Amino acid sequence: MKRFNLTTFLLLLVCVVGNSQDHFLVELENRSPDVKDQVKAYEGFPAIQFLANDIDGKEHSYITTKGKTTFLWFWNQNCPKCIEYIPALNKMYEKYSSTLNIVSFCDEPKAAALEYRKSNPISFPIIANAKVLADGPFGGDFGYPRLYIIDEFGVIKYVIPEVEMRGNFDAYGFFETIHRSLQKK
Q1: Each residue of 102-148: pLDDT tens digit?
Q2: What does pTM read for this prediction?
Q3: Which end of the chain is more exposed for a tag (fewer CB within 10 A), N or C?
Q4: What is the CATH number of the domain that holds 155?
């Protein structure tokens, strides 16, 4: 198995997509000690259970995410990077709907999230008023945006905090590479 640190992994996305490697390991060596410890508390463990209605009234829970790879996306409307990555998530959701769930959690009230979606297409579910969930069991210290990637068995495979999504970040390439890697297992 090849070993990549996350920075190298992000820089080599194009190579990984075209590579025949079935597996890769993301190391935490470039993360600050606090972030490393926090990430270790999540990765490799079962996803935290939740039950919430999205802004359209549909119920989402831990159980409904099993059987597919799941992206739990934490964002807010005042975060430029959060907004920047929504088109990539939309594309993933539409392209891989048979093998991928995306559930997003935003801080805004339901009315604000509905209003935002009117002028900014978001094809995946949005759970509003999620600040308590985002700040508590899902690591509020990770900032916005942040992504939890859960395999089909409900195990958190990767936690991508805000600090990992800075700079020139190819969101779609990254999301697709992670999703494909989990489908090959």
Answers
A1: 999 998 999 999 999 999 999 999 999 988 777 777 776 788 899 99
A2: 0.78
A3: N
A4: 3.40.30.10
